[in-house]
Amino acid sequence: MSTASTIVKLPPQEGATLPKKSYLNSEYGLKSWLLTGDHKRIAILYLISITFMFFVGGAMAGLIRLELLTPQSDLMATDTYNKVFSMHGIVMVFLFLVPSVPATIGNFLIPIMIGAKDLAFPKINLLSWYLYLAGAAFTIAAMVLGGVDTGWTFTTPLSTHYLNTHVVTAGLGIFIAGFSSIFTGLNFIVTIHRMRAPGMTWFRLPLFIWSHYAASILMVLGTPVLAISLVLVILERTIGIGIFDPTKGGDPLLFQHLFWFYSHPAVYIMILPGMGVISEVISTFSRKRVFGYTAVAFSSVAIAVFGFFVWEHHMFIMGVSNYSALVFSLLTMLVAVPTAIKIFNWSATLYKGSITFETPMLYAFGFLGLVTIGGMTGVFLGSMGMDIHLTETYFIVAHFHFVMVGGMLMAYLSGIHFWWPKMTGRMYPEQVSKLAALTTFIGFILTFFPQFILGYLGMPRRYAAYPPEFQVLNVLSTAGATVLGIGYLLPMLYMTWSLKYGKIAGANPWQATGLEWQIQSPPLTENFLETPIVDHEAYDYEWLANKTQHEVQTVG
Amino acid sequence: MHIISPVLWEFLVNWLTHFALFPPEASGIAPYTDALYFFLVGISLTGLVIVGLLVGLFSVKYRKEKHPEAVQIEGSTLLEATWTIIPLALFMIAFVWGALLYFRIYTPPTNAMNIYVVGKQWMWKAEHPGGQHEINALHIPINKPVQLTLISQDVFHSFSIPAFRVKREAIPGRYTTVWFEATKTGEYHLFCTQYCGTLHSAMIGTIYAMTPDDYQAWTAGSTSGTSLAQNGERLFASLGCNSCHSGAATARGPNLAAAYGSKIQMSNGSYVTVDDAFLRNAILNPTMNQVAGYAPIMPTYQGQVSEDGLIDLVEYIKNLNSNYRVQQTLNTSQVQTPSPAMPGTSGSANAGQGMVKQ
Ligand SMILES: [Cu+2]
Ligand SMILES: [Cu+2]
């Protein structure tokens, strides 16, 4: 246990100036963006596109909550409702949550954090974005042409034989977007293996890198299974091969196995990068190295490995053998442990720190609380007998929104606020952003907490109409969603505002230790003028304090 | 009292009286499920409070104004081991407890009465052995174990009774079972919880839990005239099953009497126990379920018999315990104009009926 102590002073922001040359102004024109190989520009392209998709998915969520204001199905036809929640799920899962942190923040930071000039395959990186766009285009086409009402889970044989909506179009969209994610994962893995700066050993990597590494493995190994199951759905739908159809000797449960073999790990594809963000943010704002670095790093890997062997917990009530359910329940309990370790390690990081409460930190605190609830309710669902009552109800809806929205989205917003100064060179207004963080938190609790109670009461998910005794809780939930909506709109507005009017941030506004903070903001296209040589561990605040106080090299 | 507006007041009262926070506990298993639930809520709250306290206390004590110098700490194996082992232990309790509950809910007792339930877009059809059919409703006696054998005719559905804390997926092409013992009379929600298309949220119904006497009266009052087994018997004849399964020593197909529950040898040498699922598969997929010692001549009935019909056939074969009387039955008037079956009364099954289990 080292007990060196560090005082870190924030640099004065008044003196900061925007660098004359940066990745943002190295080239001009639409073409310079659309054909760029620069990971930072591609990250910005992703940022714009996933923000757009987020608001599409968000609008769907708004419609769902409006319909559920009253017990009757009165705002829209039930078919329309089914299309709306399907689109909400498809857009949010495949086009927002999966790419959210990795494709934007990860893309921007992974090369910089390890001291590289770019990702290993810049052109493949650009291709990933175009694939994402194509996937999104197909999905939106499916929506505009009349919608798809399979739910995001594409359950067979409903999706293969009983619906005449645009299942194939939407399926193709997700199939294509899947390749975007496979290529991103591949790019990250190769980059992290091959492009680390001299001295950047595995155990000097920021935890952000570890968690992205783990998530990338899941993307590369899991997504092809999703792709193939969608291809099988499309083939069964179009030419009638009998893979899932029991009357042709197929097995409808097979689809469940295939789908969840991807979609459970997908939960970790979504949450692991967010956990990486939280490690960076909590360390920075408590000016302390992350408590138990190795445990946090390995818990990411453990989550990735165990994450592949728990999928059947989505099928406990579907007539699987009781004994196989037993094995999967046990493994589900095991996968909960690394998450618990992380949460305690983050809390312990605060101990004897020197804590400040900037906006990213507030989001990170929100993350800690909500992920604890989300994770614990996962244990409810992993406990087989309990799952019988809770599965397919609003309990499960609340559970995964706590993990995905309370966890991942909070982490994403935390990360965006944390690295915004690095990405744009400017600060956002501090007070408003704190207000937004608080609004999001309150809105979130109000929206999703009542859903746990609804779930225990037995309210099924994906219902357009429900018994009147569930109304009070549904009204609360809708009210909360309104607050939550405001909480998400605010950053959108002030972030855009800050692009022009925000205070100039300077290279290292938070006095963080990562390599990305040692270069100018916004960075140069080539990131580093000369390849950095790393001689210290991650989160070494002493090193930072002792570093001769020369303001970072500004070119030109 | 109503200072604001009588209308608003009425609305509020209406609203709040229709307000539920906890589902009724109306089955034998419900208190067990709830106990596990409260245990899990307990450990969740404890975890949440611990994390909250740590974060809160440290934030106050070590905020920059009070604690300007951060003390760098590498970690602590002891502490980390603690917060690995304690959660692990608690999760293991949740695992074992949940597993016990699960096995209990999905292992029907042998003396349970069986009701078939067929799910189809968008309704539930329950078929009682006595031949009573009901749509989106299920009448059951309290204090008696009831087993449901579920199947879907089209897509996945899921049969959920929150008040009983039981739920089971109705899967196309496969029987699943669940059981419960209602403990309180009353009417309870029945939901389809698996998304199944347009009217998923209308695929709901009511469970009527009744005293045994009321139930008896209900079964007597709503009989359709023929029991499931009798329907099956007719189908058995009209589909020509009896031409091969005549029970005669020279018959081309095996004698199905007493088949149910027995262990038979398959042509590939393995042994299987004849249960509902096996019977259903044997009818639809004879080539996949070859019985040893017979030629593979049985045609497939895939697509020719509805799920209801299959249930009738299964129920018929199930009840053929000893007497093989297809041929006689068809010649008696009993089947053409069946006497009202009395599922509630035992021992009155007259000759000519497929021995309805009471
Ligand atoms: Cu899962
Ligand atoms: Cu349904």
From TrEMBL, chain A:
Family to which this protein belongs: Belongs to the heme-copper respiratory oxidase family.
Pfam families: COX1
Protein name: Cytochrome c oxidase subunit 1
Listed GO biological process terms: aerobic respiration; electron transport coupled proton transport; respiratory electron transport chain
Keyword Cell division: no
Protein localization: Membrane
GO molecular function terms listed in the Swiss-Prot or TrEMBL record: cytochrome-c oxidase activity; heme binding
Residue intervals passing through the bilayer: 43-64, 84-109, 129-148, 168-192, 213-235, 255-278, 290-311, 323-341, 362-382, 394-414, 435-458, 470-490
Protease listed as a keyword: no
Domain named Cytochrome oxidase subunit I profile: residues: 27-535
Keywords: Electron transport, Heme, Iron, Membrane, Metal-binding, Respiratory chain, Transmembrane, Transmembrane helix, Transport
Species, as recorded: Acidipila rosea
UniProtKB/TrEMBL annotation, chain B:
One GO MF term attached to the UniProt entry: oxidoreductase activity
Transmembrane segments: 36-60, 81-103
UniProt KW keywords: Copper, Electron transport, Heme, Iron, Membrane, Metal-binding, Respiratory chain, Translocase, Transmembrane, Transmembrane helix, Transport
Classification via InterPro entries: CcO_II, CcO_II-like_C, Copper_CuA, Cupredoxin, Cyt_c-like_dom, Cyt_c-like_dom_sf, Cyt_c_oxidase_su2, Cyt_c_oxidase_su2_TM_dom
Gene3D superfamilies found in the cross-reference section: 1.10.287.90, Cupredoxins - blue copper proteins (2.60.40.420)
Name of the protein this chain belongs to: Cytochrome c oxidase subunit 2
Cofactor stoichiometry and binding remark: Binds a copper A center.
Region (Disordered): 332-358
GO biological process: ATP synthesis coupled electron transport
Sequence similarity: Belongs to the cytochrome c oxidase subunit 2 family.
